[in-house]
TrEMBL record, chain A:
This is GTP-binding protein. GTPase involved in activation of the TORC1 signaling pathway, which promotes growth and represses autophagy in nutrient-rich conditions. It holds the Pfam family Gtr1_RagA. It comes from Endocarpon pusillum. The keyword Disulfide bond does not apply. InterPro entries: Gtr1_RagA, P-loop_NTPase, RagC/D. The keyword Glycoprotein does not apply.
From TrEMBL, chain B:
It comes from the Eukaryota. Keywords: GTP-binding, Nucleotide-binding. GTPase involved in activation of the TORC1 signaling pathway, which promotes growth and represses autophagy in nutrient-rich conditions. Signal peptide: none annotated. PANTHER family: RAS-RELATED GTP BINDING RAG/GTR YEAST (PTHR11259), RAS-RELATED GTP-BINDING PROTEIN (PTHR11259:SF1). Residues 309-344 are annotated as: Disordered. One of its GO terms (biological process) is positive regulation of TORC1 signaling. Component of the GSE complex. Pfam families: Gtr1_RagA (PF04670). Residues 320-333 have a biased composition (Polar residues). This is GTP-binding protein. InterPro entries: Gtr1_RagA (IPR006762), P-loop_NTPase (IPR027417). GO terms for molecular function: GTP binding; GTPase activity.
Length: 335, 428
């Protein structure tokens, strides 16, 4: 199964009304666009297909809002076969009646032919809403969709709901949940993370896809948003600083031998440590350690993280991973 | 499915820093002492090296200038006391600098002040109301430098009063005028006329002030128009500046450009930059660092930076920190020294670190003012770097070429230096 992880390219379809925020979501999550710049995005006129190369290859299709997705002139087979998830984006700041109706019609259409598709509803743009309105709208949308689907005769359809906004972590959190359903060895990864966390004094550990900041797995302790934000933002810190200092240097400046993987830690004012270690080309481990001895046990941390890395790469392993790693290891010597 | 069940070790692996330190490096830990040799005849200084750290010239930890006995002593021994160095204004030894923040109402003066000095994040500034008359605040910097900020409300009635009834009060004794233009303003000519009026008043009362013009809210302009719109506006402003020593910056609270502008301003005002830079150079050499950046603790503004290159340095030097050459005679690095092609890296570091400080503050239920970093380390295949507190008011950001042992040594030496310094200040 894991051998095919990269051949099996799940597809994520983003659908919903015009200006609901589909293109903004793909731009922010997969192209690192600063959220404010989405104000300049133009309406999508044809399907935008992005391939994401990561620990697992997947495709993201951003649909134009005005399209009728079940127009007979479309090749439904081409669009919907092999899809991993249908992400339906609803603008919670706008009137969502039409969107809900269209969604249920689509689900009804799909359920007959492709009953295994995950439907993920993003109740989007929640940043502009008061807490009270936010949860009311969320409940209302959920209720309406379930009622309408019931009316169509669908009991327990595979629909999940998320509150999202491109202006905070919620969109990354939601995408993480969507992707995790498509990661075959999730249970194994969680087990490995549990072992790591329990033996290294960690509060919480996440395995992130480095480029998108989607997390592929975490240990099974309850998610703590505070810890999550500090971990997720720390990836930005490391990527952004690395970009500024990774210019090619002459080999003669080198002062001695060093590991090729990126490794970083920061101790903050209250003694908490955030620890990051590159696992392979695509994934990094980020964890939070509140244990007061953390600073002194850095050697243990490094060692355990290294063992975890070996185990992880065996899980994903077979061929491609190992090969790419050894290529990467050669690189510095060539300069 | 078979997945390996690796045992994870629960005993610490042996990997302590000291063991990795190359012996000769550990022993030659750079205990530098910078000493100012004052000479009353000429404003010259020299630096000597001895066996203990001496940071007093780097940073002031005294709360008040007046009360502290050391200050008087130091001031009299201070090389700038009689004749100013070229480019250092007459009152360089007076460490309280009056800074006027002016410009049309709504141009963004209070916003930028809040983002830089009061730990606001950009989206919070919408909460700010228009400033009524003048709002005073002060920002303490290193080296006893205190900026007295006069945020002058920009509505017409106030502006009229600044140049008439309050004229001498506002414009006397000004070290810096920061004038903010809104790039989206529809009344460019009117803005420029107002600016001229202000400049004339400044000329009358503080002819030796520095003037910085910020062409602000550049985030509202699409990328392809940014450059020419900015240059065009900056040119118009220059023509109205009546021979003042003027620098212009494009800025926005939404990106690092604001840090560049304010670092440029602060850089002009730090009193003993020459000493600091000499010190950093010597330190960089000793720990084999490629670059050292000194950042102010709470704003993360770059105070100064040095690059350490083994290439011989040409005799005459220009600063690297900001694109328009400033006339500081002291900066040791030349642009040719700097092999890093990312010339905007310092303002970007400020922005990256300050943004993360906000994340940390938010998630540890702390105020941004009390949140901070003890030590940040980053090791990659291409470079190593760390950020550590150096003095009460500064962080030091050090970049070292690859090599684990040398890196650990650099971290250790910096931390030792800091502890030694803390010992010194506590003893006082
Ligand atoms: N407040 C807020 N605005 C958002 C959010 N996401 C997107 N927007 C804004 O919504 C507007 C429309 O976004 P698009 O991404 O172009 O919408 P779309 O769904 O791709 O639209 P079509 O391509 O026409 O189907 C933009 O102005 C975005 O800035 C969000 O989370 N919060
Ligand atoms: N787009 C954008 N808006 C900005 C920027 N800086 C400030 N603003 C906005 O400009 C508005 C006015 O900002 P203020 O800082 O209150 O303006 P002011 O210059 O202090 O105005 P007075 O106190 O009346 O003189 C605020 O709503 C800010 O959101 C910027 O860089 N970009
Ligand atoms: Mg679109
Ligand atoms: Mg104001």
């Amino acid at each position: 199964m894991s051998a095919n992880l990269r051949q099996n390219k799940p597809r994520l379809l983003l659908m919903g009304q015009r200006r609901s925020g589909k293109s903004s979501i793909t731009s922010v999550v997969f192209h690192k666009m600063p959220p404010r710049e989405t104000l300049f995005l133009e309406s999508t006129t044809r399907i935008q297909k992005d391939s994401m190369h990561s620990f697992m290859d997947f495709q993201v299709w951003d649909f134009p809002g005005q399209l009728n997705y079940f127009d007979p002139t479309f090749d439904a087979e081409e669009i919907f076969s092999g899809i991993g998830a249908l992400v339906w984006v609803i603008d919670a700041q706008d009137d969502y009646t039409d969107s809900v109706t269209r969604l249920t019609a689509s689900v009804a259409n799909l359920q007959d032919i492709y009953p295994n598709i995950n439907i993920e509803v993003f109740v989007h743009k929640i940043d502009g809403l008061s807490d009270e309105y936010k949860s009311d709208a969320f409940q209302d949308i959920r209720q309406r969709i379930e009622d309408e689907l019931n009316d169509h005769g669908y009991k327990n359809p595979p629909v999940s709901y998320h509150q999202t906004s491109i202006y905070d972590y919620s969109i990354f959190e939601a995408f993480s949940k969507v992707i995790q359903k498509l990661v075959p060895p999730l249970g194994t990864l969680e087990n490995l993370l549990n072992i790591l966390v329990n033996n290294s004094g960690m509060e919480k550990a996440y395995l992130f896809d480095t480029m998108s900041k989607i997390y592929v797995a975490s240990d099974t302790r309850p998610i703590d948003m505070e810890v999550y934000e500090m971990c997720s933002d720390y990836i930005d810190v490391i990527l952004d600083i690395s970009e500024l200092y990774s210019y090619p240097r002459s080999e003669s400046t080198r002062l001695g031998p060093q590991m090729v993987e990126t490794e970083s830690s920061v101790t903050i004012h209250d003694g908490t440590m955030i620890y990051l270690k590159e696992m392979n080309k695509y994934l990094c481990l980020v964890s939070v350690i509140k244990h007061p001895d953390a600073k002194d046990k850095k050697g243990l941390l490094d060692y355990n993280a290294h063992i975890f890395q070996d185990a992880l790469n065996e899980v994903f392993a077979r061929g491609w991973e190992k090969q790419e790693n050894s290529e990467a290891a050669k690189e510095p010597a060539e300069h | 499915m078979i997945y390996p069940n690796h045992p994870l070790r629960t005993q610490p692996a042996r990997l302590s820093i000291i063991e990795n330190v190359a012996p000769e490096l550990a022993l030659t830990a750079p205990w530098l002492k910078l000493e100012l040799k004052s000479s009353s005849a000429a404003p010259s200084y020299s630096v000597s090296i001895s066996k203990s750290w001496h940071f007093d010239e780097l940073d002031a930890v005294h709360e008040s200038e007046e009360e502290h006995p050391f200050d008087k002593e130091r001031d009299s021994a201070y090389p700038y006391s009689d004749t100013p160095l070229p480019g250092v204004s007459m009152d360089a030894r007076k460490r309280k600098k009056k800074v006027l923040l002016m410009g049309k109402s709504g141009s963004g003066k209070s916003s930028m002040r809040s983002v830089i000095f009061s730990n606001f994040v950009a989206k919070d500034v919408r909460r700010l109301g228009a400033t009524i008359d003048v709002e005073y605040s002060h920002a303490k910097f290193m080296g006893n430098l205190t900026l007295n900020l006069w945020d002058c409300g920009g509505q017409d009635a106030f502006m009229d009063s600044y140049v008439s009834a309050q004229r001498s009060n506002i414009f006397s004794d000004v070290a810096v005028l920061i004038y903010v233009f809104d790039i989206e303003s529809r009344e460019v000519d009117r803005d420029l006329d107002t600016y001229s009026t202000i400049i004339r008043a400044l000329h009358q009362y503080s002819p030796s002030a520095y003037v910085f013009c910020l062409i602000h809210k550049m985030d509202l302009i699409q990328l392809e128009h940014k450059e020419h719109l900015y240059l065009e506006r900056a040119q118009l402003v220059k023509e109205r500046s009546e021979g003042f020593d003027l620098e212009t910056f494009a800025s926005s609270i939404w990106d690092e450009s604001l840090y560049k502008a304010w670092a440029g301003i602060v850089h002009k005002l730090i009193p003993n930059l020459a000493v600091i830079e000499k010190f950093l150079h010597a330190f960089a050499k000793a720990i084999k660092a490629e670059e050292i950046v000194l950042l102010e603790r709470s704003t993360f503004l770059t105070v100064t930076s040095v690059v350490n290159n083994t290439k011989p340095r040409p005799k005459h030097k220009a600063p690297i920190s900001n694109s328009p050459p400033s006339d500081s005679p002291t900066n040791e690095s030349t642009p040719e020294d700097d092999s890093n092609p990312n010339f905007d890296r310092h303002e970007r570091i400020s922005n990256i670190l300050k943004t993360y400080k906000h994340t940390v503050a938010r998630n540890t239920s702390n105020t941004p003012a009390s949140a901070g970093f003890v030590l940040l380390k980053l090791q990659t295949a291409q470079f190593n770097l760390f950020l550590a507190r150096l003095t009460e008011n500064t962080y030091v950001f050090v970049v070292v070429p690859p090599g684990e042992a040398a890196f650990n040594c650099a971290v250790l030496n910096t931390l030792l230096a800091r502890e030694a310094f803390e010992g010194v200040t506590n003893a006082k």
